[in-house]
Specification:
This protein is 31% helix and 24% strand. The chain has eight helices and eleven strands. Helix 4 crosses helix 7 (209-217).
Length: 237
């Protein structure tokens, strides 16, 4: 019912899908997993926005409201071994407003990149933007507010998008967000070769993009205890 309500709100056509409730592997059940196929249209392919950081000096702007919620998060599961807690509150009106800001900014040609905050929260979204950067650019982020460090880094509050724009475009984007009632904060800058995140002057994370990306790329082989995921390159490859 929730999926149907969201699709009606966004006028999204569902073309197919599958829901797995009872799949077991070695006697262990997976979580219920709905998978949907949907259709979208980008009238001008030149305005398609990708997730990777593009240019040093670009402004990082967080669209949406961060909240002190860690329930049912990947952080809680991986770090504390607990798949528990209330799922963060979701509001379709708020979600649609955030998406509208992002869509209008993309249509205006303002956005250099955009990435939703979902599994892993802000820290993981920023890392994935760096991993998808053609030149491996990192970023420097300063988190404000009163959130605890773990919630600020890994909270999965919905209806948030991390975007980058040229600094001269930032006032226009922030103004559009205000017009549509969407919280928006300039939180950092693209550049360097590391993921650097601070909160109220305290360093929370400082890791080279190359090292973080290696861990990310090797996650599946490590999980299956394989020494190599890709064969080593030979001269001339």
């Amino acid at each position: 019912m929730g999926i149907a309500e969201a699709c009606r709100a966004f006028e999204i056509p569902v073309t197919g899908g599958n829901v797995s409730f009872y799949n077991d592997t070695e006697g262990v059940s997976i979580y219920p997993t709905p998978v949907l196929g949907v259709v979208g249209l980008i009238p001008d392919i030149d305005k398609a926005v990708r997730p990777g950081f593009r240019t040093p000096g670009d402004a990082l702007i967080l669209l949406g409201q961060s909240t002190d919620e860690l329930g049912a998060s990947e952080y809680l599961k991986v770090v504390h071994g607990s798949a528990a807690g209330p799922v963060p509150a979701f509001d379709l009106v708020r979600e649609k407003a955030v998406q509208e800001v992002c869509l209008r900014a993309a249509e205006a040609g303002w956005l250099e990149s955009a990435h939703d905050l979902s599994e892993g929260g802000l820290a993981v979204a920023a890392a994935e933007c760096a991993f998808h950067s053609p030149d491996g650019f990192g970023c420097s982020i300063e988190i404000g507010g009163e959130l605890r460090a773990d919630a600020a880094l890994f909270g999965e509050a919905p209806s948030r998008i991390l975007v980058t724009v040229k600094p001269e475009r930032a006032p226009a984007l922030l103004g559009l967000a205000r017009e549509l009632g969407v919280p928006a904060v300039w939180i950092g800058t693209v550049g360097g070769s590391a993921l650097h995140i601070k909160s109220r002057g305290n360093e929370l994370l400082n890791i080279p993009v190359r090292d973080a990306r290696a861990v990310w790329m090797e996650a599946i082989p490590r999980r299956f205890h394989q020494e190599e995921y890709y064969p080593p390159l030979k001269k001339g490859d």
